[in-house]
Amino acid sequence: MNRPSQLTFGLLLTGLAGYIDAIGFIQLTGLYTSFMSGNTTQMGVSISHGAVDGIVRPAVLIATFLLGSTIASGLSIVTPAPWKTTIVLTYEAILVFGAFALGLQLPDLGLVSFFLALAMGAQNAVLGSVQGFRAGTTFVTGALFSLGQKIAAAFTKTGPPLGWVGDAAVWLALLIGAIGGAAVYGTIGIFALILPAGLTACLATMAALFARAHRVGA
User: Fold this and answer.
1) What is the pLDDT along the chain (218 residues), one digit of tens a residue?
2) Residue 204 burial class via C-beta count within 10 angstroms: exposed 0-12, middle 13-18, buried 19 and up
3) Based on the structure, what is the number of domains in the chain?
4) Is the N or the C terminus of the chain less surrounded, counting Cβ atoms within 10 Å?
5) Cβ contacts of 140-146, under 8 Å, gap ≥ 24
6) Residue 120 belongs to what domain range?
7) Is the pTM above the cut of 0.85?
């Protein structure tokens, strides 16, 4: 997959992460499906206050995210190079479709969020660095720090004048995704998951086509 394609995939996946995290945040009333720093802080506060009820959910979400990341990373390790993205995205798509199917059957949407946390953990194994910044991850703290560094480099003329644009685009993609996720979920409820499930499946298909073309051209 060439760099423009990686960049496009990365921004779409980052937007998807914001979309899903917004839905999970609403379902879990203040917890996250991808922002594990927030969940860890919430768990720490609950531990300090002795609030057992406030410990279990963030702990399970963290463990679930870790499990999703571990399985996806394992798949990426054992899969031949051209097909890594396809396999991990397919795994993620199955998890999001599973969350949607579960949401249709169960009134407790908190259970759906655990499937989404698995999917978000998996997504971080899809792409690495693209053109000097992380693309496709489910969090943007690193992107914001890198954005600040590159803006400083641009002002001091020690780096490219537009070197910060990529990191800014990553942050903006997550923000736009979160706005969309909250708005769509507020309108159609659990059916809002059809969009990220379908998008992930489409990206997996496109990655497969790229991999096939690469194999044919090799």
Assistant:
1) 566 777 888 889 999 999 999 998 988 888 899 889 899 999 999 999 998 888 999 999 999 999 999 999 999 999 988 888 899 999 999 999 999 999 888 766 678 888 999 999 999 888 654 455 566 677 788 888 989 999 999 999 999 999 899 889 989 999 999 999 999 999 999 999 999 999 999 999 998 998 888 765 55
2) buried
3) 1
4) C
5) 140/14, 140/170, 140/171, 140/174, 141/37, 143/167, 143/170, 143/171, 144/171
6) 3-217
7) yes
Residue 129 β-bridge partners: 134
Structure tokens at 70: 């571990």
Give the pair of three-digit tokens for residue 52.
Answer: 């057992």
End-to-end CA distance of the chain: 13
